[in-house]
TrEMBL record:
Record bears the keyword DNA-binding: yes
Domain of life: Bacteria
Record-annotated IclR-ED domain positions: 68-213
Annotated keywords: DNA-binding, Transcription, Transcription regulation
All residue ranges annotated as the HTH iclR-type domain in the record: 6-67
UniProt xrefs under InterPro entries: ArsR-like_HTH, GAF-like_dom_sf, HTH_MetabolicPath_Reg, Tscrpt_reg_IclR_C, Tscrpt_reg_IclR_N, WH-like_DNA-bd_sf, WH_DNA-bd_sf
Full protein name: Helix-turn-helix domain-containing protein
Organism for this UniProt entry: Streptomyces catenulae
Length: 213
């Protein structure tokens, strides 16, 4: 560290890099050990980064990279959407249902990219920017399953009527993408999700994850 640099800023940037390199977040104690500083310093760093939405802490106290990191660059969200759109378009056309990419924003699920099928007579209207609690809807539930390590079935989540009456959803989490928690899913007007749709959604989630790596 030279006289021209800021020790606090350096530590804050190191916190962000450490969090970006883990899929499950880090506790204050873990960050303290990795940084070689006491817990009080880590608490102050996290509190400051949280104020700018660069870091978020889940209910278990684990710190993760926040979506404020994405907002630092105006082109990041468009780049994420651009990377996901080919797989989402193919999914929407194949299934005949609205496909979406959803990312975690704090305690909510945020739809950042949506593609509606072109050939159906009707489909569920779902817009980019739509938010809902993580524990409601297939998109959020898939993310929570991945967070909890419940990925025996690739983290596939199926729901019915949780966000809109008469609508069913299927979603699979993005796995192996450092610093991003999200899912790819479809929503349709149906009483249940047919057996062929789940594997197709899982494949699309894998395609998007590969595009974002």
């Amino acid at each position: 560290m030279t006289a021209e640099t800021s020790q606090t800023l350096d530590r804050g940037l190191r916190v962000l890099k450490l969090l970006a390199d883990t899929d499950h977040g880090l506790t204050v104690t873990e960050l303290s050990h990795k940084l070689g500083v006491n817990r009080t310093v880590v608490y102050r760093l996290l509190a400051t980064l949280e104020q700018h939405a660069l870091v978020r802490r889940d209910l278990g106290g684990r710190a993760r990279v926040g979506l404020g990191v994405l907002r630092l660059g105006r082109q990041v969200h468009p780049l994420v959407r651009e990377a996901a759109l080919p797989a989402l378009r193919a999914l929407a056309e194949d299934i005949g249902a609205t496909a979406h990419l959803t990312l975690v924003d704090g305690t909510e699920a945020l739809a950042v990219a949506v593609v509606e099928p072109t050939w159906t007579d009707y489909h569920v209207a779902y817009r980019a920017g739509f938010r809902h609690p993580l524990d409601r809807g297939a998109a959020g539930r898939a993310i929570l399953k991945a967070r909890q390590g419940r990925i025996q079935d690739a983290g596939l989540a199926l729901t019915h009527g949780e966000l809109e009456a008469g609508a069913s959803g299927a979603a699979a989490p993005l796995l192996g993408v450092s610093g991003i928690e999200g899912s790819v899913g479809v929503v349709m007007l149906a009483d249940a999700v047919s057996e062929r749709i789940g594997p197709r959604v899982v494949d699309a989630a894998r395609e998007v994850a590969e595009a974002l790596r």
